[in-house]
């Protein structure tokens, strides 16, 4: 599997600097937490790492590498197995939980039987067995958050970028999602978790604290 490296990464939204000259290394097989108050730049950082910010809305400078290979744009990020779980989940209201996970697998060429197997497994890992055929619109905020996580897990990412993926969960479901993130790292993925939650950050290999876009390592591996 491949680790993630970013060097000199900066993000500015039409003149507002959100991330300043940040260096970040996440070895394969580890979970790194990114913490900081609201507006500190956590989402901007994750979107920039995923190369998901369009130049029309944000200016991103610096390099991102996966397994040592430079990642220039969103297509390259997808090809090298980067998966972003956005803060607002990015789900389609009119799809079921099952379909939400399935379409992303079919889109990358996973065969239908294998995709069906992975959907069932991923929804089970986040405690959604039995809710597969509910529309996203009929699910609670926390259930939607877990569907978004299941979709990422099913893709078996090399790099998993999770943005506040436990913010709407009760203690039991939060523990299940955090366990799944650590299992992904044990499989060999590089995992980045942006979080306000000190307990979620507690078990990670390292903690990068952001404050008004400036990063300091609160704890290193
Ligand atoms: N789409 C956008 N357009 C303009 N400015 C933005 C946009 N998204 C974020 N920003 C700005 O970038 C800065 C960092 O915001 P960001 O959302 O990255 O912080 P955050 O740490 O993820 O906050 P939160 O914990 O509230 O999600 C803020 O000043 C914010 O106003």
From TrEMBL:
Q: Which organism is it from?
A: Nocardioides hwasunensis
Give the matching SMART domains. AAA
Supply the alphabetized keyword list: ATP-binding, Nucleotide-binding
Record's InterPro entries? AAA+_ATPase, ABC_transporter-like_ATP-bd, ABC_transporter-like_CS, ABC_transpr_LolD-like, P-loop_NTPase
Spell out the protein name for this chain.
ATP-binding cassette domain-containing protein
PANTHER family, A to Z? IMPORT ATP-BINDING PROTEIN
One GO MF annotation is: ATP binding
UniProt domain ABC transporter: residue ranges = 4-221
Q: Which domain of life is it from?
A: Bacteria
């Amino acid at each position: 599997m491949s680790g993630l490296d970013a060097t000199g990464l900066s993000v500015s939204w039409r003149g507002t600097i959100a991330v300043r000259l940040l260096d970040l290394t996440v070895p394969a097989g580890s979970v790194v937490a990114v913490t900081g108050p609201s507006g500190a730049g956590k989402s901007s950082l994750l979107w920039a790492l995923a190369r998901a910010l369009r130049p029309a809305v944000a200016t991103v400078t610096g390099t991102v590498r996966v397994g040592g290979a430079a990642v220039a744009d969103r297509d390259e990020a997808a090809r090298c197995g980067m998966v972003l779980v956005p803060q607002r989940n990015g789900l389609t209201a009119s799809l079921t939980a099952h379909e939400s996970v399935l379409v992303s697998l079919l889109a990358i060429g996973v065969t239908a039987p294998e995709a069906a197997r992975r959907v069932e497994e991923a929804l089970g890992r986040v405690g959604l067995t039995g809710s597969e055929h509910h529309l996203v619109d009929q699910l609670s905020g926390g259930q939607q958050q877990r569907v978004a996580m299941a979709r990422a897990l099913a893709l078996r990412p090399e790099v998993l970028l999770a943005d506040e993926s436990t913010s709407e969960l009760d203690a039991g479901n939060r523990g299940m999602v955090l366990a799944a993130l650590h299992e992904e790292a044990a499989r060999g993925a590089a995992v980045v978790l942006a979080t306000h939650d000190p307990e979620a950050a507690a078990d990670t290999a390292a903690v990068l604290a952001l404050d008004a876009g400036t990063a300091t390592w609160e704890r290193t591996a």
